[in-house]
Amino acid sequence: MDEIILSVENISKHFGGLTALNNVTFHVKKGEVVGLMGPNGAGKTTLLNVIAGEYAPSSGKVTFKGIDITGLPSHKICHLGIARTYQIPQPFVTLTAMENLLVSSVFGRQKKREGSIKEEEEILELVDLKEKKDVVTGNLPILSLKRLEIARALARRPELLLLDEVAAGTTEVEIPRILRIIQEIRRMGITVIIIEHVIKVLFSVVDRIVVLDKGTKIAEGNPDAVMCDNRVIEAYFGA
Ligand SMILES: Nc1ncnc2c1ncn2[C@@H]1O[C@H](COP(=O)(O)OP(=O)(O)OP(=O)(O)O)[C@@H](O)[C@H]1O
Ligand SMILES: [Mg+2]
Questions:
Q1: Which residue ranges of the chain lie beneath pLDDT 50?
Q2: Helices 142-154 and 117-126, packing angle to 10 deg
């Protein structure tokens, strides 16, 4: 199973004089779970934003399933099969949890789907929100919204899922739950790129880690190798 599903090649992103991403290259194989690590401000979310089409890169190329998606608008990229979550949950707050999933399900892919309440219920069950399906999401607590964010992305039936800090800021009790959800997503065969500061989560689920620091890729490899890398230790703890 060595088929490359996503290639990020020489991606740079500048915001005025600030270089958020500097010539970043990496590849993701179909079915892989790849972790994205780096100190605050390293460029992790910006990289997800470039892959998902929220920002066009200043230079470089992103290829998904052999298609050049560089600079495509986010809805087109979503329709091709990439779904992402937001660090700060972004549900439709006046809709219920189920209605949020139905919106994702019907409009998430190129070919419009019929909404299926039963199928969306299964997704809500996966994230432990089935009993909240009729609750207006503006009334849900933040931990539920974090899990709803994953459910909304799954309802788009993605082939590549981009998760931005779904465990960060949650409680110790919540972490095993998030771990179980990500393991389940892996079993579904969905390729995942996950940004996570909670090392326990990252190390339990990833095949490989890419480390960014100040917009530059400083290491890539299996979790043990990456954690022993001097450049990574320096980025986190100083020289
Ligand atoms: N829209 C924007 N306009 C200007 N600067 C931005 C914008 N988005 C990100 N940046 C800057 O780019 C750099 C990388 O930010 P980014 O949010 O990608 O970091 P991050 O690795 O996700 O950090 P964190 O761990 O804190 O979430 C930061 O210096 C940030 O201030
Ligand atoms: Mg971020």
A1: none
A2: 130
Q: Determine which residue's CA is closest to atom 17 belonging to ligand 1.
A: 45
Which sequence spans correspond to the domains of the chain?
4-81+158-237, 93-157
**CATH 3.40.50.300 for domain 4-81+158-237:** yes
Residue with tokens 């909240």: 132
Query: Which tokens sit at 222?
Result: 């299996």
pLDDT tens per residue across span 182-208: 999 999 999 999 998 888 888 889 999
Long-range contacts of 224-227 (CB under 8 A, 24+ apart): 226/37
Among the bound ligands, name the one nearest to the CA of residue 20. 1
Question: Which pLDDT score, from 0 to 100, does residue 201 have?
Answer: 83
- Specify the ligand 1 atom closest to the Cα of 215: 14
pLDDT per residue over 47-77, tens digit each?
999 999 999 999 999 999 999 999 999 999 9
Amino acid residing at 122: E
Ligand 2 center to 41 CA (angstroms):
7
Question: Within 13 Å and on the Cβ side, how many CA atoms surround 148?
Answer: 31
Contact 155, 121 (CB under 8 A): no
Q: Ligand 1: which of 13, 46, 194 to mutate, most ligand atoms within 8 Å of CB? A: 46
> What pLDDT, on a 0 to 100 scale, did the predictor assign at position 111?
76
Minimum-distance ligand to the CA of 36? 1
Q: Which residues line ligand 1 (CB under 6 A)?
A: 15, 18, 20, 38, 40-46
